Each structure stands twice: as C-alpha cells, then as structure tokens.
C-alpha cells in the first residue's frame, strides 16, 4: 500500500501536465502545425491567383527559401525543365563567369581591352575603357552592330566592328547605356586572357568547375557567335541552381559577391534603361543585374533585392531581405519584359509571406 501511495503524486503530476498540454496546445509540435497550415494557405492563395491570372504565355514560377523549402507553380504546358531562350537573363550569368576569372587573377576589373585584344585602340576614349565599365554598361560602346545578331558572323570580327562603330564614344563611366556591345567586348577579353578558343570553351570550363548549367548553352544567334548579353538557352531548374550557388557563396567569395550585387553606375547619367522606360522604375545597375532600388526614394544600402529580367519576360531574382530567390521562367513575345514582371507583382506580397512562413 505504501508503494502505491508514493506513486500517486507522480501519476497526478503526469496527468496534470498532459491536461495542460491539451488545453494550451503547446505540446506535440502545434506551433509547427500552425506554421504548416499558414504555408498551405499562402500557397493556395498563390495558386488561386495565378490560376485566374490572364497571361500572354505559359510560365513556371519556382522559388526556394533560405531554409531550403521550395515551391513550384506551372501555368499551361510550362515546366521546370522546359528550355527557354534567356534574353537578358544571361547578363547575370555572363557577369559571374567573368568575375570568377577576375577572382582567379586571370583578369582584372581595371584591365583595358587592348591588354588582350590586339586590334583595340591604344589612344582616345576607347583606350580608357576598363573591364568594370563593360560589366556595368558605362563603357560608352552604345552603338550596336548587326553582326551581334548574325549567326554566321565571326565573333572576333564582330567585336572589331563594334570598335569601328564606336570610335566617337564618350568618356567611360559617364553614361549608363543598356546594350549588348559592352559584354561582347568583355567576353573576348575573357577568351583571350584564358587562352581558350571561344566563349563556348570559357563556359564549358565554368560548367566543369561549378557543376552548373549542365544542359544550358550560349547558342544565339549561334554557338560560334553567341550574344553574351542575351543568347543562352536554359531551364528553370538550372537557373535556380545557379541562384542558389550565388546565394550560398559557392561561386564567388564575399568580396566579389559584394561587387556583383552593389551599385556600379554611381553618378553616371542614364542614357538607356529598360527598367525606367518599360517599368517606370529608377533601378540602379550592378554587374549584369539590376538593384531594385530607387535612390531618390530610399537608401540602396544594404542591397535588398536584385534581378536579371529578359525581354521575353523571364524574371530571375534574389531577395536578400526576405531570404529567398526564384525564377519566373517564360518566353513571351519580344519586348514583353514588363509582362513578366507584372506576373510577379500580382503575387509579390504572397511570395514574401511564403518566404517568411518557411524561414521562421
């Protein structure tokens, strides 16, 4: 009897704790189930909104949060492995490939084209261009030439044409002008400095070193004359892996990530900005990507969000503030840049809520 009586307080305490757990709903992971419920509700809202959204083309929206949680929405026949033309979403990829060469001391951001390109002028404004001007589109090479879009043109000869058509270029660093010429010259500098035969060889080396973009290719208008500022084919899964590697600091070290994702145009005047002309956004530009910040409205430091949208409406982005990244993969008509961004904006608040729900 004494043994039984000694056990009664213990049993009573256990029953009291269990009762309290049931009443307060604090045991057995109820906070986790609440978070899961919130996530499901948010994802249902995203799906419902996009299901009824009228789009000019099929698309895939894929997200990943810092926690590793993912979300995918497909509209129509689009899937994460659908192959799309990159348009300007390749600008970020090209900039990263070249910055890795700088990080590896193969190039310097202060190198001028004539350091590797034999036909480049050694006097005048063209001789004062540096690699960083080419990557931030302030080189003064604003005149585009037809050969950039000619599949049978010779890549190196085309860059000589770029030089010839821009002999009266302004002082580097003075004007931001969104155009393809800058990256073509930067690409030839990378080829020559690497001792490789083509941009395809440079890209193949990048693939081997990083394991990224296994199936992607620079082949527009052709593989022998690729347009580096807008000539890739990629899949959403590949671009997401690329963004994840950037986000986690696996491709570039922190110093070069800071350069990649910081305002690189400074006080330069704005000569051509599709963000401004198509979206009415006074965004800043870094190396191959937009900083989604208007310095006239708010401070742009620290950088909260960057993107590299293309003219067909593809919209890859990294949101450092909300701690997630994603790709709206699509290929609408030419100059539907604004339509892709409009699709994102339709669910922008819900996407931020989703990231918050899975990161906390």
How far apart lie the N and C ends? 51 Å
Strand/helix succession = HHEEEHHHEHHEEHHEHEEEEEHH
How many helical stretches? Answer: 12
CATH architectural type: 3-Layer(aba) Sandwich
- Percentage of residues in helical conformation: 40-55%
The CATH superfamily name is DD-peptidase/beta-lactamase superfamily
Content-based structural category: alpha+beta
The count of β-strands is: 12
Main pleated sheet:
7 strands, antiparallel
Biggest sheet, spatial arrangement of strands: 2-1-12-11-10-9-8
Strand content: 5-15%
Q: Kindly state the mean pLDDT as a whole number?
A: 92
Which blocks of ≥5 consecutive residues have pLDDT under 50?
1-28
Q: Cα-atom Rg, whole angstroms?
A: 25 Å
Predict the CATH topology.
Beta-lactamase
What does this structure look like?
This protein is α+β, with helices and mostly antiparallel strands. It has one domain (40-359): DD-peptidase/beta-lactamase superfamily (Beta-lactamase). The protein is 41% helix and 13% strand. It contains twelve helices and twelve strands. The chain has helices at residues 2-24, 30-51, 90-103, 131-135, 155-165, 181-194, 199-210, 236-247, 254-260, 274-279, 337-346, 348-359; strands spanning 59-65, 70-75, 83-85, 175-177, 217-218, 232-235, 269-272, 284-285, 290-291, 305-307, 315-319, 324-330. The protein has a seven-stranded antiparallel beta sheet, with helices on both faces. A hairpin with a 4-residue loop joins strand 1 and strand 2. It is globular and about 65 Å long. The termini are far apart. Residues 1-28 have low confidence and may be disordered.
């Amino acid at each position: 009897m004494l043994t039984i009586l000694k056990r009664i307080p213990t049993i009573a305490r256990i029953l009291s704790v269990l009762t309290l757990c049931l009443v307060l709903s604090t045991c057995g992971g109820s906070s986790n189930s609440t978070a899961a419920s919130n996530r499901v509700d948010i994802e249902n809202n995203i799906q419902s909104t996009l299901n009824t959204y009228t789009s000019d083309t099929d698309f895939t929206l894929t997200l990943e949060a810092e926690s590793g949680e993912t979300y995918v929405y497909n509209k129509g026949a689009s899937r994460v492995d659908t192959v799309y033309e990159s348009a300007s979403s390749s600008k970020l990829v090209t900039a990263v490939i070249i910055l890795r060469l700088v990080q590896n001391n193969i190039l310097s951001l202060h190198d001028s084209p004539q350091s590797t390109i034999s036909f480049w002028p050694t006097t005048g404004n063209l001789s004062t261009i540096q690699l960083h001007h080419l990557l931030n589109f302030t080189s003064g090479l604003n005149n585009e030439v037809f050969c950039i879009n000619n599949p049978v043109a010779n890549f190196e000869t085309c860059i000589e044409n770029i030089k010839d058509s821009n002999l009266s270029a302004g002082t580097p660093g003075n004007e931001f002008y969104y155009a393809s010429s800058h990256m073509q010259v930067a690409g030839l500098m990378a080829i020559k400095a690497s001792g490789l035969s083509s941009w395809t060889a440079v890209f193949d080396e990048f693939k081997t070193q990083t394991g990224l973009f296994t199936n992607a290719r620079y082949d527009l208008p052709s593989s022998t004359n690729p347009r580096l500022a807008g000539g890739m084919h990629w899949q959403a899964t590949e671009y997401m892996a690329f963004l994840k590697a950037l986000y986690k600091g696996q491709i570039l070290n922190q110093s070069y990530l800071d350069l990649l994702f910081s305002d690189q145009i400074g006080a330069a005047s704005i000569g051509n900005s599709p963000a401004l002309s198509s979206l009415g956004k006074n965004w800043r530009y870094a190396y191959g990507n937009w900083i989604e910040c208007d310095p006239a409205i708010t401070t742009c430091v620290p950088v909260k969000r960057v993107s590299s949208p293309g003219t067909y409406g593809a919209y890859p982005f990294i949101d450092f503030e909300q701690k997630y990244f994603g790709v709206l993969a699509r290929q609408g008509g030419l100059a539907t840049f604004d339509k892709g961004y409009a699709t994102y904006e339709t669910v922008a608040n819900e996407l931020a809520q989703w990231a918050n729900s899975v990161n906390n």
